[in-house]
Write a structure and sequence with these properties.
Length: 250
Amino acid sequence: MSSSTAPQLAPEVMRLSEPQRVINTFVAPSRTFIDIRNNASWWMPWLLLSVMSMLFVFTMGQKVGWERIMQNEIAKNPRAVEQFDKMPAEQRDRAMDMQVTIGKVSGYMSPLILLISALLIAAVLMATFNFGIGATIGYKTALAIVFYGWLPSLVTSLLGMVTLYAGVDPDGFSIRNPVATNPAYFMDVTQHKFLYGMASALDIIVIWSIVLMAIGFSSNSKVKRGTAFAVIFGWYIVVKLIGAGFASAF
């Protein structure tokens, strides 16, 4: 049989390795999310995010100290400050020790907290896209999209560690907003709680993640990219409004 009459085989789709997926999330995100159609694994981004968050937590403990971190958080809540001031010295010390323990344990449990958060968010987004817009996205696919979409958080942790090693003022450090990636970083939370909460929503790293997740959901369904972004950003704003309102009221 001549080469001119030989049947033409379809070119084999080049699948990405896990490291290639991670790199492409930052430089060519569509390639990563299209590859999720072939293999909806999510362990690599979860592992990277977990390791980086643990390193950040360790750095905070070394450069700021957990007692100072919790004192800074208490100082942002006038009611908490008033309650601590009314306590006898011994009771105040016990209460602070409890806060430090809770903060430290929560910090080092960040990989588990990250996993639980992703499981819940993936379920909500999958239900919204499938039942609200008529997409057909599987849960494992949604979970992989969420985890790869969160990879820009590595930048936040890295910037946070650089800032801490550069000599950040421990008295001004905030575990809730450690890096100047949103306008709230420059605001006083005690003066404008609701405005602070909404300003923190304008975080360039979070918006970057939302864009990535929008690419992911549109790449794995017939949903337009703009619609996908509106859905995810809409959920994000709803959550921030509830959080800001709760903080302002209580």
